[in-house]
Amino acid sequence: MGVVIESSVWEPNPLLYIFLFFACCSSIFLFPYASSSNKTPVLFDHGISPSFLRFQRNFLLVYSLASVMEGLGSVFGEFELAYHGVSREQMVESLCVGYAAALFVGTFLGMLSDLIGQMKVCLIFCILHLFVGIWKRIAKRPSILVASICLSLANSIFSFSFETWMVIQHDKQGHRLDTLNDTFWLMTFFESGCLIGSQIFSNWLLGNNVERSTIFPSTTTIFLAILCIIFVAKGWEDNPQAASFKEYSMSFYIYILGDKRIWLLAVAQACLHFSIAVFWILWAPTVVADGREVHLGLIYPCFIGSRMLGSTTFPWLISGPSALRTEDCLVYGFAILGVVLSIVAYDYQEIGVLVTLFCLFHACVGMILPSLSRLRTLYVPDELRGGMMSLSAAPSNAAVLLILLKGGYYQTIGNAEIIAIAAFGLFTAAGCMHMLKRWGKQPYHNWHKQ
């Protein structure tokens, strides 16, 4: 008699989704009652001017549309490539080309945005997505390399231009400085929510018709890009530099390249971006190692939901009952991230433990992202913010390009070694934040006015 081996596909407990949902709601709605200060989040502060609420909501609307476009690309990217018969080697090649474009072109887009205005560069972001969406509709087999270059440049713009525009306009319109903190964590919260919404929408589009599922995402991207262009062009004010390129270069050299504290902040940002990129490249191979069967589509919302929960802890940490310095929060956050990736790199784990560690990783990321945004506002002049953010991404893009070549193309380095490198970078970032806390600096903005 033959032996029947039953195989099961691992799925997260549905109670995890309920826990993340109620934890986020509780964190948001209970904070005003637990805060020891009179300051409460924007969601509950009825004393804030209607002009700020209108400004914030309009920005978050456009930022959410841009996040959905980014999310559709990440959810459908590999599926579309496989549908068109693209091999694994070609996928790795397209990733390498994309990161190379982000390194050699995207690095300077932030400086360009400071000179010509953030609004124009945000429009370029929309146009790049619009171009790729239209091309996929009219071409039977679009070039994956050109699409990868366009989407990588759009992702580079997304990482700095929207935030920079918001901060500059926030200051220009004279809104309260403390409300920036709320907008920072709401950006992370809304972006994460849009990523989950993009996956749900993508699964609905997928259905049972494979041909239709490769067309609808492009159509949706075209629609969202046009909508975003209209909102940005008609509702946003531009803020180009009044200074010449020479004056901008001198200011950048003095205030950015000449300040060791901003170097520490830039290194920490680069290490975080590198670790996030490594995670999204390797999380699925790590989970399904040794032939384990896992429903990956149900795990993805757990990670993003954890990031949403992490973002809601930001106001608790900086202005809650036991407020901490932002640098202290980042030291602890980066150290936890480093420990999590170290465990994944050097110790075999069951799927449940791995998913728990990865959720903890994203919860810390959700807290770190608005914290870094706040430090950029403290230390970096607004007129140089875009250039600083894009330049700090260059080491990360270079490192990811290197590991793609060594690990994905030539296969001379294993996944565990790559994760270990990312863990070392996170411990380095924790050290940078500790040094930044010790050295201190007179902030660029006078935050004592809050």
UniProtKB/TrEMBL annotation:
<feature type="transmembrane region" description="Helical">
    <location>
        <begin position="91"/>
        <end position="109"/>
    </location>
</feature>
<feature type="transmembrane region" description="Helical">
    <location>
        <begin position="214"/>
        <end position="233"/>
    </location>
</feature>
<feature type="transmembrane region" description="Helical">
    <location>
        <begin position="144"/>
        <end position="162"/>
    </location>
</feature>
<protein>
    <submittedName>
        <fullName>Molybdate-anion transporter</fullName>
    </submittedName>
</protein>
<feature type="transmembrane region" description="Helical">
    <location>
        <begin position="384"/>
        <end position="405"/>
    </location>
</feature>
<dbReference type="GO" id="GO:0016020">
    <property type="term" value="C:membrane"/>
</dbReference>
<dbReference type="GO" id="GO:0015098">
    <property type="term" value="F:molybdate ion transmembrane transporter activity"/>
</dbReference>
<feature type="transmembrane region" description="Helical">
    <location>
        <begin position="15"/>
        <end position="34"/>
    </location>
</feature>
<feature type="transmembrane region" description="Helical">
    <location>
        <begin position="121"/>
        <end position="138"/>
    </location>
</feature>
<feature type="transmembrane region" description="Helical">
    <location>
        <begin position="352"/>
        <end position="372"/>
    </location>
</feature>
<feature type="transmembrane region" description="Helical">
    <location>
        <begin position="298"/>
        <end position="317"/>
    </location>
</feature>
<feature type="transmembrane region" description="Helical">
    <location>
        <begin position="59"/>
        <end position="79"/>
    </location>
</feature>
<feature type="transmembrane region" description="Helical">
    <location>
        <begin position="262"/>
        <end position="283"/>
    </location>
</feature>
<feature type="transmembrane region" description="Helical">
    <location>
        <begin position="183"/>
        <end position="202"/>
    </location>
</feature>
<keyword id="KW-0472">Membrane</keyword>
<feature type="transmembrane region" description="Helical">
    <location>
        <begin position="417"/>
        <end position="436"/>
    </location>
</feature>
<dbReference type="InterPro" id="IPR036259">
    <property type="entry name" value="MFS_trans_sf"/>
</dbReference>
<dbReference type="Pfam" id="PF05631">
    <property type="entry name" value="MFS_5"/>
</dbReference>
<dbReference type="InterPro" id="IPR008509">
    <property type="entry name" value="MOT2/MFSD5"/>
</dbReference>
<feature type="transmembrane region" description="Helical">
    <location>
        <begin position="329"/>
        <end position="346"/>
    </location>
</feature>
<keyword id="KW-1133">Transmembrane helix</keyword>
<keyword id="KW-0812">Transmembrane</keyword>
